[in-house]
Design goal:
- Helix content is 76%, strand content 0%.
- The protein is built from seven helices and no strands.
Length: 188
Amino acid sequence: MIILYLVKEFIIIGCLAIGGGMVAVPFIQNIASSTGWITEKQIVEMIAISEITPGPLLVNMATYIGYIVAGVIGGILTTMALILPQIIIIFFIYKVFNKFKDNTNVLIVFRGIRPVSLALTVGGVLTILQSTFFKLNNYTGINSILQIFNWKCILLGIALIIVMRKVKIHPIFYFIICGIVGIVFKLS
Protein backbone atom coordinates (compact mmCIF):
# COMPACT_ATOMS: atom_id res chain seq x y z
CA MET A 1 0.00 0.00 0.00
CA ILE A 2 2.86 2.39 0.85
CA ILE A 3 4.55 1.64 -2.47
CA LEU A 4 1.34 2.38 -4.39
CA TYR A 5 1.02 5.71 -2.59
CA LEU A 6 4.64 6.57 -3.43
CA VAL A 7 4.19 5.59 -7.07
CA LYS A 8 1.02 7.72 -7.32
CA GLU A 9 2.71 10.73 -5.73
CA PHE A 10 5.79 10.49 -7.94
CA ILE A 11 3.68 10.09 -11.08
CA ILE A 12 1.99 13.36 -10.08
CA ILE A 13 5.36 15.00 -9.41
CA GLY A 14 6.64 13.67 -12.73
CA CYS A 15 3.68 15.27 -14.50
CA LEU A 16 3.77 18.63 -12.70
CA ALA A 17 7.40 19.37 -11.80
CA ILE A 18 8.19 21.47 -14.84
CA GLY A 19 11.41 23.40 -14.33
CA GLY A 20 13.76 21.04 -12.51
CA GLY A 21 14.33 19.43 -9.16
CA MET A 22 13.84 22.49 -6.97
CA VAL A 23 10.32 22.86 -8.36
CA ALA A 24 9.49 19.49 -6.81
CA VAL A 25 10.54 20.45 -3.28
CA PRO A 26 7.05 21.73 -2.33
CA PHE A 27 5.55 18.46 -3.60
CA ILE A 28 8.04 16.46 -1.53
CA GLN A 29 7.32 18.65 1.51
CA ASN A 30 3.66 17.82 1.05
CA ILE A 31 4.46 14.09 1.10
CA ALA A 32 6.59 14.62 4.22
CA SER A 33 3.94 16.62 6.09
CA SER A 34 1.05 14.32 5.18
CA THR A 35 2.80 11.03 5.91
CA GLY A 36 5.61 11.79 8.36
CA TRP A 37 7.88 9.36 6.51
CA ILE A 38 10.62 11.98 6.09
CA THR A 39 11.45 15.16 7.99
CA GLU A 40 12.29 18.67 6.80
CA LYS A 41 15.90 18.07 7.85
CA GLN A 42 16.01 14.91 5.73
CA ILE A 43 14.66 16.86 2.76
CA VAL A 44 17.42 19.45 3.07
CA GLU A 45 20.05 16.72 3.49
CA MET A 46 18.58 14.88 0.52
CA ILE A 47 18.86 18.00 -1.64
CA ALA A 48 22.47 18.56 -0.55
CA ILE A 49 23.44 14.97 -1.28
CA SER A 50 21.49 14.93 -4.56
CA GLU A 51 23.24 18.10 -5.69
CA ILE A 52 26.70 16.57 -5.29
CA THR A 53 25.92 13.14 -6.75
CA PRO A 54 25.73 12.45 -10.47
CA GLY A 55 22.34 12.60 -12.09
CA PRO A 56 19.32 14.88 -12.03
CA LEU A 57 18.36 16.27 -8.63
CA LEU A 58 14.75 15.11 -8.74
CA VAL A 59 15.62 11.58 -9.85
CA ASN A 60 18.10 11.26 -6.99
CA MET A 61 15.53 12.58 -4.52
CA ALA A 62 12.84 10.18 -5.78
CA THR A 63 15.20 7.24 -5.47
CA TYR A 64 16.26 8.31 -1.97
CA ILE A 65 12.70 8.75 -0.69
CA GLY A 66 11.55 5.48 -2.23
CA TYR A 67 14.49 3.66 -0.68
CA ILE A 68 14.02 5.23 2.78
CA VAL A 69 10.30 4.47 2.85
CA ALA A 70 10.06 1.13 1.03
CA GLY A 71 13.56 -0.25 0.45
CA VAL A 72 15.20 -1.10 -2.86
CA ILE A 73 11.91 -1.87 -4.63
CA GLY A 74 10.51 1.46 -3.42
CA GLY A 75 13.56 3.30 -4.76
CA ILE A 76 13.25 1.65 -8.16
CA LEU A 77 9.49 2.15 -8.46
CA THR A 78 9.51 5.80 -7.35
CA THR A 79 12.26 6.55 -9.85
CA MET A 80 10.33 4.85 -12.65
CA ALA A 81 7.10 6.57 -11.58
CA LEU A 82 8.86 9.93 -11.79
CA ILE A 83 10.61 9.36 -15.11
CA LEU A 84 7.87 7.70 -17.16
CA PRO A 85 5.41 10.65 -17.21
CA GLN A 86 8.25 13.02 -18.07
CA ILE A 87 9.30 10.89 -21.02
CA ILE A 88 5.72 10.75 -22.30
CA ILE A 89 5.20 14.50 -21.76
CA ILE A 90 8.45 15.44 -23.53
CA PHE A 91 7.58 13.17 -26.46
CA PHE A 92 4.12 14.73 -26.68
CA ILE A 93 5.45 18.29 -26.39
CA TYR A 94 8.03 17.59 -29.09
CA LYS A 95 5.39 16.29 -31.50
CA VAL A 96 2.90 19.08 -30.75
CA PHE A 97 5.43 21.89 -30.51
CA ASN A 98 6.91 21.09 -33.91
CA LYS A 99 3.45 21.36 -35.46
CA PHE A 100 2.37 24.46 -33.54
CA LYS A 101 5.66 26.22 -32.71
CA ASP A 102 4.46 29.45 -34.33
CA ASN A 103 0.96 29.28 -32.81
CA THR A 104 0.33 32.24 -30.50
CA ASN A 105 -1.77 30.21 -28.06
CA VAL A 106 0.99 27.61 -27.59
CA LEU A 107 3.51 30.36 -26.88
CA ILE A 108 1.11 31.96 -24.39
CA VAL A 109 0.72 28.65 -22.53
CA PHE A 110 4.48 28.27 -22.22
CA ARG A 111 4.79 31.86 -21.00
CA GLY A 112 2.09 31.10 -18.41
CA ILE A 113 4.01 28.09 -17.11
CA ARG A 114 7.18 30.11 -16.45
CA PRO A 115 5.90 32.06 -13.40
CA VAL A 116 4.56 28.88 -11.77
CA SER A 117 7.88 27.13 -12.30
CA LEU A 118 9.75 30.14 -10.92
CA ALA A 119 7.48 30.40 -7.86
CA LEU A 120 7.90 26.71 -7.04
CA THR A 121 11.69 27.01 -7.46
CA VAL A 122 11.83 30.06 -5.19
CA GLY A 123 9.66 28.24 -2.64
CA GLY A 124 12.11 25.34 -2.60
CA VAL A 125 15.09 27.68 -2.25
CA LEU A 126 13.39 29.57 0.60
CA THR A 127 12.78 26.28 2.40
CA ILE A 128 16.46 25.40 2.17
CA LEU A 129 17.50 28.89 3.30
CA GLN A 130 15.10 28.77 6.25
CA SER A 131 16.28 25.38 7.46
CA THR A 132 19.95 26.28 6.90
CA PHE A 133 20.19 29.81 8.29
CA PHE A 134 17.43 29.86 10.90
CA LYS A 135 16.70 27.78 14.00
CA LEU A 136 13.08 28.75 14.51
CA ASN A 137 12.50 26.10 17.17
CA ASN A 138 14.97 28.01 19.41
CA TYR A 139 12.90 31.20 19.42
CA THR A 140 11.43 31.76 22.88
CA GLY A 141 10.90 35.50 23.04
CA ILE A 142 12.24 38.94 22.22
CA ASN A 143 15.35 38.43 24.38
CA SER A 144 16.47 35.49 22.27
CA ILE A 145 15.88 36.96 18.81
CA LEU A 146 19.53 36.47 17.87
CA GLN A 147 19.29 32.79 18.78
CA ILE A 148 17.05 32.04 15.82
CA PHE A 149 19.95 32.58 13.42
CA ASN A 150 22.37 29.77 12.63
CA TRP A 151 25.39 32.07 12.71
CA LYS A 152 27.92 29.41 11.75
CA CYS A 153 26.05 28.64 8.52
CA ILE A 154 25.49 32.33 7.76
CA LEU A 155 29.21 33.08 8.19
CA LEU A 156 30.15 30.06 6.08
CA GLY A 157 27.76 31.23 3.35
CA ILE A 158 29.20 34.76 3.35
CA ALA A 159 32.76 33.43 3.35
CA LEU A 160 31.91 31.07 0.49
CA ILE A 161 30.46 33.89 -1.62
CA ILE A 162 33.60 36.00 -1.08
CA VAL A 163 35.97 33.12 -1.85
CA MET A 164 33.98 32.06 -4.94
CA ARG A 165 34.31 35.57 -6.36
CA LYS A 166 38.08 35.63 -5.77
CA VAL A 167 39.15 32.00 -6.35
CA LYS A 168 38.03 30.25 -9.53
CA ILE A 169 38.18 26.51 -8.90
CA HIS A 170 35.88 23.67 -9.88
CA PRO A 171 32.59 23.79 -7.88
CA ILE A 172 33.08 20.26 -6.53
CA PHE A 173 35.96 21.57 -4.41
CA TYR A 174 33.61 24.05 -2.75
CA PHE A 175 31.26 21.18 -1.89
CA ILE A 176 34.14 19.17 -0.45
CA ILE A 177 35.56 22.11 1.53
CA CYS A 178 32.16 23.12 2.93
CA GLY A 179 31.39 19.48 3.78
CA ILE A 180 34.62 19.28 5.77
CA VAL A 181 33.90 22.62 7.47
CA GLY A 182 30.39 21.36 8.30
CA ILE A 183 31.83 18.25 9.95
CA VAL A 184 34.58 20.11 11.84
CA PHE A 185 32.30 22.86 13.16
CA LYS A 186 29.28 20.56 13.60
CA LEU A 187 26.96 22.66 11.45
CA SER A 188 23.35 21.49 11.62
